[in-house]
Write a structure and sequence with these properties.
- This protein is of the alpha+beta class.
- The chain is globular, with a radius of gyration of 22 Å.
- The chain is 36% helix and 20% strand.
- Helix 14 runs antiparallel to helix 15 (394-405).
- The strands form four sheets. Strands 14-11-13-12-16-17-15 form a seven-stranded antiparallel β-sheet, sandwiched between helices.
- It binds flavin-adenine dinucleotide, (2R)-2-hydroxypentanedioic acid (2HG) and zinc ion (ZN).
- Residues 36, 71-79, 82-83, 94, 114, 136-138, 141-143, 145-147, 149-150, 152-155, 203-204, 208-209, 329-330, 413-414, 417, 450, 453 line the site of flavin-adenine dinucleotide.
Length: 458
């Protein structure tokens, strides 16, 4: 759009949200134009920060009329380049939508604005004796809206499912500026299409989420975290499968490896957990009304664990053990922008798949390093590759094809964004992608909502 046309749009938008909330200073807008990893960069004429759903709807209406594209953005912690303005779009930040309702203790639900940080939501739930079970290391910045738009998974999916499983209703602004609102939270409600479910995982392409009704789970006060060292991944997979069967209060089953642990310890100044290094580490967390520590150790013994075991029953020790796993993402970022391949595979295939990776990466990117960790209970492996140029996708291509040929997914929980759209066809048939396009066209005929993510160019 011509500059004067855009200026006219921004003037109208300033009239809606107030001039201080139309940010045009490039120094201030810069952080909104780069993703968390530093791999995806763009530019924007302005960041718009509406303070209410009404303002946001009005802004979208003006943009639709002028055919100006918008990228919705929450905490900007997304890992697939989906929340940054790659083609000069306006950034529509939801961070001022921070209304957080009182917890409905009878329903076990709460209504939260799109800009509420996950940690704030968790705190509100805890104060009422409940928990918001979606948890992730980005909890202090990732927002309710962003986690819904990406259908974020996180650390507790094995027990409570991902974001979609908590969603009881949604409020969102569609591409024509209309507002859909269904926040009653009835546990049973079969009155037509599930718009909340449709918007969840749509990555800002079908609507801008402004609020959500979310289910909470009981707060289970007794908690144990256990870190176990293994000689090999096959043994770790077998133990996790047995512990899952034997310990119904298991919240998390996470994996990392010796080199990732060494990097985390170096970057964070931490001591390694055991007197020796193990090739594979599995972190398990359980919580219940009664102390699950004994049950955890019986489950590990019954599963035949023989390696080192560290147990955390108090909050400090539990946090120390979690840090070894949670700090992988930030430690890896100190090496430069990584390529992030968030894969899921049928669990029995994971050991062979991982065994093949070093040779594949060495052949196609000799200078690259590969870092592996993830949510082993979900078969969700985070493959991070450092030492390759941001736009060199040769290794990504090989690995995504390997994953697809094993019946796995190229995106377990981070979404498609811009990073993976050219490989969408590996997991989705032509008919499915056609259906996606039809839905997109029906809800956003002009194509103003995050037009450069999820769907590859036709
Ligand atoms: P953003 O990054 O701002 O946006 C993400 C996408 O959602 C973009 O496409 C954007 O356009 C869209 N969007 C944002 N807000 C809205 C809205 N209100 N309406 C419509 N569309 C919107 N992810 C996991 O799944 N599991 C993890 O364990 C996990 N751990 C992480 C740990 C770290 C240290 C970091 C940095 C990231 C992690 N992530 C994880 C990725 C990230 O936190 C999630 O994808 C999260 O859901 C993004 O939320 P956000 O508010 O930052 O969204
Ligand atoms: C995690 O599980 C996140 O820690 C981030 O999903 C994964 O950094 C990554 O690749
Ligand atoms: Zn993850």
């Amino acid at each position: 759009m011509a500059r004067h046309g855009l200026d006219a749009v921004l003037t109208r938008v300033a009239g809606i949200v107030g001039s201080p909330h139309v940010v045009v200073d490039p120094e201030v807008t810069r952080p909104y134009t780069v993703d968390w990893t530093g791999r995806f960069h763009g530019t924007t004429p302005a960041v718009i920060r509406p303070g209410s759903v009404e303002e946001l709807a009005e802004v979208v209406r003006v943009c639709a009329e002028a055919r100006v594209a918008i990228v919705p953005q929450g905490g900007n912690t997304g890992l697939v380049g989906g929340g940054v303005p790659l083609e000069g779009e306006l950034v529509l930040s939801t961070r001022r939508l921070t209304a957080l309702g009182e917890v409905d203790e009878i329903a076990g639900q709460v209504t939260a604005g799109a800009g509420v940080a996950i940690s704030a939501l968790q705190e509100r739930a805890r104060a009422a004796g409940l928990e918001y079970p979606v948890d992730l290391a980005a909890r202090d910045s990732a927002t309710v809206g962003g986690t819904i738009a990406t259908n974020a998974g996180g650390l507790h999916v094995i027990r409570w499912g991902g974001t979609r499983a908590q969603l009881r209703g949604i409020e969102a602004v569609l591409a024509d500026g209309s507002v859909v609102r269904h926040l009653g939270g009835l546990p049973k409600d079969n009155t037509g299409l599930d718009l909340a479910g449709l918007l969840c995982g749509s990555e800002g392409t079908l609507g801008v989420v402004t609020a959500a009704r979310l289910a909470l789970v009981p707060r289970l006060p007794e908690r144990v975290v256990t870190l176990v060292g293994f000689e090999d991944l096959r043994a770790a997979v077998a133990v996790v499968a047995r512990v899952r069967r034997g310990l119904s209060c298991l919240n998390a089953a996470e994996v990392f490896f010796a080199d990732g642990l060494a990097l985390v310890c170096e970057v964070e100044g931490l001591r390694e957990p055991f007197g020796r290094s193990w090739p594979v580490y599995v972190l398990l967390e359980a919580s219940d009304h009664d102390d699950p520590t004994e049950r955890m150790s019986s489950a590990l013994a019954a599963a035949g664990v023989t390696g080192d075991v560290a147990v955390g029953t108090d909050a400090r020790t539990r946090a120390e053990l979690w840090a070894y796993r949670e700090r992988h993402t930030s430690a890896i970022n100190t090496l430069g922008p990584p390529h992030k391949l968030d894969l899921s595979l049928p669990l029995p295939m994971l050991p062979d798949f991982i065994a093949r990776l070093p040779e594949v990466v060495a052949r196609h990117a000799p200078s690259a390093r590969t870092w592996l960790f993830g949510h082993i209970g979900d078969g969700n492996l985070h493959v991070n590759i450092t030492g390759t140029a941001p736009d060199d996708e040769e290794v990504d291509d090989i690995i995504f094809r390997m994953v697809a040929s094993c019946g796995g997914s190229i995106s377990a929980e981070h979404g498609i964004g811009t990073a993976k759209k050219r490989w969408l066809h590996l997991n989705r048939s032509a008919a499915e992608v056609r259906a996606f396009r039809r839905i997109k066209r029906a809800l956003d005929p002009v194509g103003i909502l995050n037009p450069n993510v999820l769907l590859p160019p036709e």
